[in-house]
Structure to design on (163 residues):
């Protein structure tokens, strides 16, 4: 299959990985075949820090309803950025760092992946974990960049809406 990957010049990955990602989308209707391409793309970038590929992967897994792999991939993104940027484990310390640096691209990827982890946790039935994550994101989400408020409303419907 001849695929023009030049249209993805902004995407931080080799031409081979881009081709695998395109093949994953072109075979979307056949989840087994599509998954094979996505796994190959991830294997090709395993040793590198290709955040674009990891972000594409967790979104792919989420929309394929493969929440376990979406969760694993989002956690991989979070762990890699946490390690690369030496982010603290303690939420209060982390919160202040995230607030100060939230306009940096890697920190925004971290925040998006963490928000996604909240959604994924909800899909997996881990509602307490989902609520905790979304509450944390709300604390640094002053511009509603990460959708935390709407996610919180979904996870905590008011009694008035139920009636």
């Amino acid at each position: 299959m001849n695929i023009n990957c030049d249209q993805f010049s902004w995407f931080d990955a080799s031409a081979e990985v881009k081709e695998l990602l395109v093949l994953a989308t072109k075979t979307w209707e056949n989840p087994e075949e599509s998954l094979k391409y996505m796994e190959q793309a991830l294997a090709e970038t395993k040793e590198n820090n290709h955040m674009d590929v990891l972000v594409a992967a967790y979104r792919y897994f989420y929309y394929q309803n493969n929440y376990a792999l979406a969760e694993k991939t989002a956690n991989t993104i979070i762990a890699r950025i946490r390690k690369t940027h030496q982010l603290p484990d303690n939420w209060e310390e982390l919160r202040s760092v995230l607030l100060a640096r939230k306009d940096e691209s890697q920190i925004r990827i971290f925040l998006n992946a963490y928000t996604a982890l909240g959604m994924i946790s909800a899909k997996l039935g881990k509602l307490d974990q989902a609520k905790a994550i979304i509450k944390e994101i709300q604390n640094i989400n002053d511009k509603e960049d990460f959708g935390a408020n709407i996610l919180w409303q979904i996870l905590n419907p008011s009694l008035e809406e139920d009636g």
Q: What stands out?
A: The mean pLDDT is 87. The two ends are 54 Å apart (CA to CA). Residues 90 and 96 are 10 Å apart (CA to CA). The chain has nine helices and no strands.
